[in-house]
Amino acid sequence: MKKLILISFFICLAGCQSAYYAAWEKVGVEKRDILVDRVEDAKDSQEDAQKQFSSALDEFSQLINFDGGELQDVYEQLKDQFEASEESANTLSDRIDKVESVAEALFDEWQEELEKYTNVKLKRDSQQQLKDTQRRYTALVRTMRKAESTMAPILSSLRDNVLYLKHNLNANAVGALQGEFNGIKKEINQLIIEMNKAISESNNFISSMKS
Questions:
Q1: Mean residue pLDDT across the chain
Q2: By the 8 A CB rule, do 90 and 106 touch?
Q3: pTM to 2 decimal places
Q4: What gap in Å lies between CA 121 and CA 181, rounded to an integer?
């Protein structure tokens, strides 16, 4: 029964996607345009993730340099930064999924339309354009997913530290977490590097699609 429900869900989802793209095409917006928009959205999320994880690192730095005051306030701020980072990561993953969804629909449609050509030269040119676009797209998604993968270990480390601090609001707890800082800092610096690569790849792909 569960399997049948799952199959029905995916059939409905596919139908909804088709209807969505068809509705946009009626007003002159093609899948190609939607793909560019979604890549731009994903790029924005990559930039947001960079800023958010950097902000979380700053908050962590303040924690380990804690020198008197209300530790509960510091904990709450670190917790807020973790939750904001988690939300930022989820948004980015969702937007990459949407990029892949429309790209798959675009390439399937493009491949099918190749069979409708009667002019051999035009068909050959279109086929080459498809291959070039798929190649650039594959490089783009590979870079996006690599950058995305750097977020999970950071979130895991931040979550551990937030949970530990929650139940140990004292100076000893801060001392225990000081050893975690350098590892998290290294991971976030690597995330920023990978995000910059993905942002650059996104800009290149957008430019190639608009040219």
A1: 89
A2: no
A3: 0.86
A4: 60
